UniProtKB/TrEMBL annotation:
Bilayer-spanning residue ranges: 12-33, 53-76, 97-119, 131-149, 170-187, 193-213, 220-237, 257-276
GO molecular function: metallopeptidase activity
The organism's place on the tree of life at top rank: Bacteria
The keyword Cell cycle appears for this protein: no
PANTHER family, sorted: MEMBRANE-ASSOCIATED PROTEASE-RELATED, PROTEASE
Species in which this protein is naturally found: Flavobacterium fragile
Pfam families on file: Rce1-like
UniProt entry tagged with the keyword Ribonucleoprotein: no
Segments forming domain CAAX prenyl protease 2/Lysostaphin resistance protein A-like: 134-231
UniProt xrefs under InterPro entries: Rce1/LyrA-like_dom
Keywords: Hydrolase, Membrane, Metalloprotease, Protease, Transmembrane, Transmembrane helix
Protein name in UniProt: CPBP family intramembrane metalloprotease
């Protein structure tokens, strides 16, 4: 009932257009502007000029501000509650958020430690206490805002708007997942690995969309996304990623398009779907993911 709950509201569907349209135009503008530009070189030059932490702020602050914009728009322009944007439940289920956060956070830590144990030559110790703890503060504030913006925009605002417009679950699932992937097309990882990495980005979009529709709310997606970006940024960095940070480790190896891209999408995400489905008793997968919206009495 995550989308259906809004059918009883008097909503102008045109109010769902401005923010997604503006963001989509920004995605394609960034793509065409950066086409042929070495984005990693630009990031390195910025780091050399203003430092790692200020570069991090410069990159992430607009997305963190985007969260405030989406919440303001929904609350004061559309006249809807933040609760209805977040979940179909009577109140936001923070236990779901923290279960997802700690589950994926733990898996991420174990994967990084396993990679370090198997291939220590691919890593260098990057921990500098005075720099790390400044970054830790910045990360704890800005990264959850950045990830929440992406969830509230794609799996919240856009998914609900498209669902209402087309009386469908499948259309918003497909559209938001693809657009979520395309949002990352200007990342330096794409230059380094190639467009095959879009399998990971779009696959992640589908995973997050599926758990949102199956669980009738954003809590699990919010927790997963926050853990993915926050734990990753604190533990591991490299010279070819969008977020280059004062992390504990630095990866100096060449990225593998096969293992790094395919393992999460085709192995880890299905395992997470299985765990979530058992914990929360998900049923009627076909109807919840591909069916028409239910009628609200």
């Amino acid at each position: 009932m995550y989308i259906e709950q809004l059918k009883s509201k008097k909503i102008n569907l045109a109010s769902y257009i401005p923010i997604p349209l503006g963001f989509i135009l920004l995605i394609f503008f960034n793509f065409f502007v950066s086409d042929g530009v070495d984005t990693n070189q630009v990031i390195q030059q910025t780091i050399n000029s203003i430092g790692v932490n200020l570069t991090f702020i410069l990159l992430i602050a607009p997305l963190a501000f985007g969260l405030l914009l989406v919440l303001f728009w929904v609350k004061f322009i559309q006249g809807l509650s933040i609760r209805s944007l977040t979940t179909s439940r009577v109140k936001i289920d923070w236990k779901r958020f923290f279960f997802s956060f700690f589950l994926w956070g733990t898996i991420t830590v174990l994967m990084i430690l396993a990679m370090y144990s198997m291939h220590p030559e691919n890593f260098v110790w990057n921990f500098k206490p005075e720099k790390f703890f400044v970054f830790l503060f910045l990360a704890l504030v800005l990264i959850p805002m950045q990830t929440s913006f992406e969830e509230y925009l794609f799996r919240g605002h856009m998914m609900q708007g498209l669902g209402l417009a087309f009386n469908s679950r499948l259309i918003p699932l497909v559209v938001t997942s693809v657009l979520f992937g395309l949002m990352h097309i200007s990342n330096p990882e794409v230059d380094k690995v190639g467009y095959v990495i879009m399998i990971y980005y779009i696959g992640t979009g589908f995973f997050l969309g599926i758990i949102t529709l199956m669980d009738e709310g954003l809590e699990l997606a919010l927790g997963f996304h926050a853990a993915n970006n926050l734990v990753g940024a604190l533990l591991l960095t490299s010279d070819w990623t969008a977020f280059q940070t004062h992390s504990v480790f630095k990866d100096i190896s060449e990225p593998s398009a096969g293992f790094d891209v395919l393992t999460p999408v085709f192995i880890l995400f299905p395992i997470l779907l299985f765990i979530f489905s058992k914990v929360y008793g998900w049923k009627n997968w076909k109807e919840k993911l591909t069916g028409k919206l239910s009628t609200i009495n």
